[in-house]
Specification:
The complex is a heterodimer of chains A (251) and B (689). Chain A is built from five helices and nine strands. Chain A is an alpha+beta fold. Chain A folds into two domains: 46-142, Immunoglobulin-like (Sandwich), CATH 2.60.40.10; 144-236, Cytochrome c-like domain (Cytochrome Bc1 Complex, Chain D, domain 2), CATH 1.10.760.10. In chain A, helix 2 crosses helix 5. Classes of the chains: A alpha+beta (251), B mainly alpha (689).
Chain lengths: 251, 689
């Protein structure tokens, strides 16, 4: 009898412990700080991007410039005090996630990209007067190899391949008789295979019967550097690069 | 009791009554015990992940080869040299599977491309966490003594920094963090020694305050101490959050302890300024400021609030609020009188130029800065209190201050901060319990950790804070126990010192602030270690006399120093004799006459085969290339031997140059050299002949 009761006591204790543990886990999950609800004082009908879209940053880090969107009404004038909420795929974080537009009708959030390299489709949503309005924004996260490529591109390539000048770097694009393709030019570069890109980087334009204005970098860059450059151009291509992929036959 | 005994004895009888029965029961128990181990395996977490993995790959095109490479059971990377026992690959099964590049859910994601083999270093060296653990919670999130949660991905470059003490091209964040550690003077207070025993040295130049009263007023010191950022947004001086009384007392001590220095004020210069007809002409000042390329080192805030200019010297947006006119005139005349080690060159300005420039700089003032500051004359007690504050706050760790000794080991050493055990850390409420979040919070707001914390408030962007945290997280105790063959040493700055009278000139002109020579100096301008092999004598004399533009696209250029003719010549001869490259062979130098038709052949090679015109200008009428230096007079600038060696391999002569190594044949390089050496005049006239 006593044995039985001892065993049943043990069982009960275990059950209680399990219940407590579950409650604890459930409790922990729900103790996240409550988000104070924002009260919108106005509503717009459309969202437009002011700045901060199409940025390129390293995985897991904050983008250099904040994302700024503007809420407009039917007439296209900015609406202050409208609620804006940012959404993104897993791993992306916004600071702040929800906010009211400022006096100039703009909402500003700093964006931290996820840890996977690739293109991130983000969206901003405002409740609107009758139906919600939203805006899609694309940002690109670069992995280690792609970022190395972007650093190399800055040093060796962008002086000619990037038509934009900055105060620190005057673009050489306009000075060239045969215009190089910007690395974002997906329409052209997506059609070129990795082998072709490797050949033109290593041996210069004449390797593909193109202009000799593109010099050979095979004795300057290592094979890993060239691979990094290619993976970078693939990452920033617009329209996005779709790898051909391997075709396997299903047994 | 009796009943109990009865029950027990009957149970004993039933189970072990006779040997056969006992044997059967014991075998059964043994069997059950043996079954526990595989059953435990079957229900363990990692086994679940392996089953998930098999489901994931089942429907993929390359299922057969993926299945073939999959091995059930616990996997382990064991590297005794590195102390690595990593079982992460037990669950992270797709790390090396290239065809899983599209899989985004963990733990099956493919590892991104990195320069090392995964098996060569294991996982925890870069990612942290417990490699030997076989549950998600223990491997990733443990906070127990001696254990650490996994490192957030944005600090992953700290892993590289454990072996690589040098700057890697692929780790910009780590490199920035290390630069900030030395640039913001962190190492003045916090000692950091690298695993090889060398000490991280500061690269900032905190000014000596020994003669501060000659330079500025007590009121300015007070306003500056109250908020350095209000004076210069780019300053690296932190905010000590001083009360009005404390700032007043510190300023009182600094002024009272300051001693006058002979020659560091020039009231005659100021008089010359006022005699030349009221306020100096601002347009003349602006153009002299531009011609002297002050902006290469000094930044000024423009109307939009953006900084324009370099960061070698202090920001000059409000210099008129700070500098006393007679000090500024003397400083411009010769900065080395006030500060013998300043990176500022000794321009040989004329008296009139000094008057124009100091007048122009005095005009850079902000009427809003320091308004309403009226300090009463301090009494002895306040001055003594000021000194006490200076000692307590460690001001002398950075600045030379009369009457206060430089403190040793003022703040905790950070050589192994990256391995600081979590139980030793006092976290703030609501803070994530990780080392990285602690370091970031401490850099961001040191005083939030208690009012007794002496560390001041630095003004850093989020990216800079993350970079600093990355550099600090690289300082692990593991980095000290790495095998020697894996360590890549930092390239320390040499203590190269040019000799003789020319050496004195090089120091006075602060050539090393911009140029690098024999491993010491700045990186703004070309490395001059082999300059003597590269250039021709007359060109260098002319260039030093009046530096013309070699690279039109650069905004930072060599200033004119108003050297005397004899100084020009002496410096030139020193450079030509001393800065010679052993790799340049004068004998090999091709001459135009040695090869008939070589010049024309070289021209063709230049324009067609090597298409040099994409970056260089030879003929200003037709060529537009803007990246490399203009070559219209390269024949009178460079030596043939240098041009030839450069064409053969530019990186060998100047590592890191952007010019690609086109690896021309000897014959091509000779022809190109012959052609280039004919370019002797402005506008490419030489090329036409």
């Amino acid at each position: 009898m006593m044995r039985q009761s001892a065993a049943s006591k043990m069982l009960w204790a275990c059950a209680w412990a399990a219940v407590l543990a579950l409650a604890g886990v459930a409790g922990c999950r729900h103790t996240a700080a409550p988000v104070p609800a924002l009260k919108a004082t106005a509503a717009g009908t459309a969202l437009v991007e002011s700045s901060g879209g199409h940025q390129v940053g390293a995985t897991g880090t904050a983008l250099k410039d904040p994302l700024v969107v503007q809420v407009n009404d039917e007439q296209g004038t900015a609406v202050p005090g409208a609620l804006v909420e940012f959404h993104g795929p897993g791993g992306v974080s916004f600071d702040p996630v929800t906010q009211l537009t400022d006096t100039s009708g703009q909402a500003t959030a700093s964006v931290t990209l996820g840890t996977i390299a690739g293109r991130y489709q983000l969206s901003a949503v405002t409740p609107g007067k009758s139906k919600p309005a939203s805006l899609e924004i694309v940002e690109t996260a670069l992995g280690y190899q792609q970022r190395l490529g972007s650093i190399l591109a800055d040093k060796y390539c962008n002086r000619c391949h990037d038509p934009e000048s900055s105060p620190e770097r005057v673009s050489n694009y306009d000075n060239l008789e045969v215009k190089p393709h910007p690395f974002t030019d997906g329409n052209t570069l997506n059609k070129m295979s990795d082998a072709d890109l490797t050949a033109i980087i290593r041996h210069g334009g004449p390797a593909l019967s193109r202009s000799a204005l593109m010099p050979p970098y095979g004795d300057t860059l290592s094979a890993a550097d060239v691979r990094a450059l290619i993976s970078y151009t693939r990452a920033v291509a617009d329209p996005p690069y779709q790898p051909a992929g391997t075709v396997y036959e299903r047994k | 009791m009796q009943y109990m005994r009865k029950v027990l004895s009957s149970a004993w009888q039933a189970l072990f009554g006779d040997p056969v029965r006992a044997f059967g029961v014991v075998s059964l128990i043994l069997l059950l015990a043996l079954a526990i181990a595989p059953a435990k395996d079957q229900f363990s977490q990692w086994h679940g992940y392996q089953r998930q993995y098999l489901t994931l790959i089942r429907d993929r095109g390359d299922a057969v080869s993926l299945r073939r490479r999959f091995q059930p059971g616990i996997h382990q990377i064991w590297l005794p040299d590195l102390g690595v026992v990593d079982r992460c690959t037990t669950c992270h099964l797709g790390l090396k599977e290239g065809s899983l590049a599209d899989v985004n859910e963990q733990p099956f994601r493919k590892h991104p491309v990195i320069p090392h083999a995964l098996d060569g270093f294991g996982c925890v060296i870069c990612h942290g966490g417990q490699g030997a653990a076989t549950t998600v919670a223990e491997a990733h999130h443990s906070e127990r003594v001696g254990e650490e949660p996994i490192l957030p991905a944005r600090y992953i470059e700290s892993g590289c920094g454990q072996c690589h003490q040098n700057a890697l091209p692929g780790t910009p964040q780590l490199n920035l963090g290390r630069t900030l550690l030395t640039r913001y003077g962190c190492v003045h207070c916090h000692a950091i020694t690298r695993p090889d025993g060398s000490r991280v040295e500061a690269t900032d130049h905190p000014p000596s305050l020994a003669h501060i009263a000659d330079k500025t007023t007590r009121e300015w010191i007070y306003s500056w101490l109250k908020s350095p950022q209000a004076y210069a947004i780019s300053t690296t001086m932190p905010d000590f959050k001083l009360s009005d009384a404390n700032a007043s007392d510190i300023s009182a001590y600094l002024v009272s302890a300051s001693t006058p220095q002979a020659g560091d004020t020039d009231s005659a210069g100021v008089q010359a300024n006022s005699k030349s007809g009221g306020p100096a002409d601002p347009a003349a000042g602006a153009s002299l400021y531009g011609e002297s390329f002050c902006a290469s080192c000094h930044a000024v805030q423009n109307a939009a609030g953006n900084l324009a200019g370099g960061d070698v010297g202090p920001e000059l947006t409000r210099i008129g609020n700070k500098a006393k006119p007679e000090w500024l005139a003397a400083w411009l005349a010769n900065p080395r009188i006030y500060d013998t080690t300043t990176p500022m060159p000794h321009y040989r300005f004329t008296k009139q130029q000094i008057a124009i420039l100091s007048g122009y700089l005095q005009g850079k003032s902000d009427s809003d800065f320091g308004t309403g500051v009226h300090l009463d004359v301090a009494n002895a007690q306040q001055i003594a209190h000021g000194r006490q504050l200076i000692v307590e706050l460690g001001c002398a760790a950075c600045h030379t201050i009369n009457g206060v000794q430089k403190p040793e080991n003022f703040a905790p050493e950070l050589s192994t901060i990256g391995s600081k055990p979590l139980p030793q850390i006092v976290f703030l409420p609501g803070m994530e319990h990780t080392l990285s979040s602690y370091i970031v919070a401490k850099i961001r707001q040191p005083r939030a950790f208690g009012s007794s914390v002496k560390m001041p408030q630095f003004t850093l962007t989020a990216a800079q804070t993350d970079a600093l945290a990355t550099a600090l997280l690289a300082l692990t105790s593991r980095s000290r126990s790495m095998p020697d063959n894996l360590r890549v040493a930092a390239v320390p700055e040499t203590n190269y010192q040019p000799a003789g009278h020319a050496g004195k000139l090089i120091n006075e002109l602060a050539c090393l602030s911009c140029h690098r020579i024999n491993g010491r100096g700045g990186e703004m301008a070309p490395d001059l270690t082999w300059e003597g092999s590269a250039v021709q004598r007359q060109w260098l004399i002319d260039f030093l006399h009046n530096p013309n533009t070699l690279r039109p696209s650069l905004i930072r250029r060599m200033p004119r120093f108003n050297l005397s003719d004899s100084d020009d010549k002496e410096l030139t001869d020193y450079i030509l004799t001393v800065y010679q490259s052993p790799a340049i062979d004068e004998e090999q130098a091709p001459t135009a006459s040695s090869l008939p038709g070589a010049v024309e052949h070289g021209r063709q090679l230049f324009y067609s085969k090597y298409a040099c015109q994409s970056c260089h200008i030879v003929d200003t009428k037709t060529d537009k290339g803007y990246i490399g230096p203009t070559l219209t007079q390269v024949g009178s600038r460079l030596t043939a031997a240098w041009v030839y060696a450069w064409l053969k391999n530019p990186q060998a002569l100047r590592p890191g140059t952007a010019e690609p190594n086109q690896n021309p044949s000897d014959e091509d390089a000779r022809a190109l050299t012959a052609f280039l050496m004919t370019l002797k005049g402005p506008g490419g006239r030489g090329a036409k002949q």
